[in-house]
């Protein structure tokens, strides 16, 4: 199993698909990298030799932000927005959508499980309140 940028890429898939397992690389970027490295995109990841893998790693190091560096950069950007206390920063801080989506009915993925406010769930707690 080839290891690129600290990620084990699947060997049984084509290299153009396998490269997308690296954070920050999509299908278009994967094809662009393979074109620059002069590697056939339809080749399986298991068929790559050490020279091919080193060519890919060298390209990723020199030209692209991927994996840890990219995650760190995004986290710093969000922290900066929160520090300036701008609208997007406040939305990030409160775990709400920050790109204009509606929140009255949807946004459950971002907001988390529904929290019922003001209602008592079980009967024993209701009886204690009386």
TrEMBL record:
Q: Name one GO biological process term.
A: translation
| CC terms in the record's Gene Ontology section | cytosol; small ribosomal subunit
Which GO molecular function, any one, fits this protein according to its record? Answer: tRNA binding
Annotated stretches, region: Disordered: 92-130
Report biased composition (Basic residues) as residue ranges: 92-116
InterPro entries reported in the protein's UniProt record: Rbsml_uS13_C, Ribosomal_uS13, Ribosomal_uS13-like_H2TH, Ribosomal_uS13_bac-type, Ribosomal_uS13_CS
User: Basic and acidic residues: which segments have biased composition?
Assistant: 120-130
Query: What are the record keywords, sorted?
Result: Ribonucleoprotein, Ribosomal protein, RNA-binding, rRNA-binding, tRNA-binding
Q: Which Pfam families does the record associate with it?
A: Ribosomal_S13
**Reported function:** Located at the top of the head of the 30S subunit, it contacts several helices of the 16S rRNA. In the 70S ribosome it contacts the 23S rRNA (bridge B1a) and protein L5 of the 50S subunit (bridge B1b), connecting the 2 subunits; these bridges are implicated in subunit movement. Contacts the tRNAs in the A and P-sites.
State the PANTHER family in the record. Answer: 30S RIBOSOMAL PROTEIN S13/40S RIBOSOMAL PROTEIN S18, SMALL RIBOSOMAL SUBUNIT PROTEIN US13M
* HAMAP family per UniProt: Ribosomal_uS13
Subunit note: Part of the 30S ribosomal subunit. Forms a loose heterodimer with protein S19. Forms two bridges to the 50S subunit in the 70S ribosome.
Q: Which family does it belong to?
A: Belongs to the universal ribosomal protein uS13 family.
**This protein's name:** Small ribosomal subunit protein uS13
Query: Species name for this entry?
Result: Lentisphaera araneosa HTCC2155
Give the classification, highest ranks: Bacteria, Pseudomonadati, Lentisphaerota, Lentisphaeria, Lentisphaerales
This chain is encoded by the gene named rpsM
């Amino acid at each position: 199993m080839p290891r690129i940028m600290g990620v084990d890429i699947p060997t049984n898939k084509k290299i153009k698909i396998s490269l997308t397992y690296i954070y920050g690389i999509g299908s278009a970027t994967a094809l662009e990298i393979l074109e620059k490295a002069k590697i056939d995109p339809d080749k399986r990841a298991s068929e790559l030799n050490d020279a091919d893998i080193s060519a890919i790693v060298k390209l990723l190091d020199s030209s692209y932000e991927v994996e840890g560096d990219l995650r760190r950069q995004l986290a710093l950007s969000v922290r900066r927005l929160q520090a300036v206390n701008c609208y997007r920063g406040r939305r990030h801080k409160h775990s709400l959508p920050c790109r204009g989506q509606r929140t009255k009915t949807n946004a459950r993925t971002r907001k988390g499980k529904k929290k019922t406010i003001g209602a008592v769930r079980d009967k024993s707690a209701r009886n204690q309140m009386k």
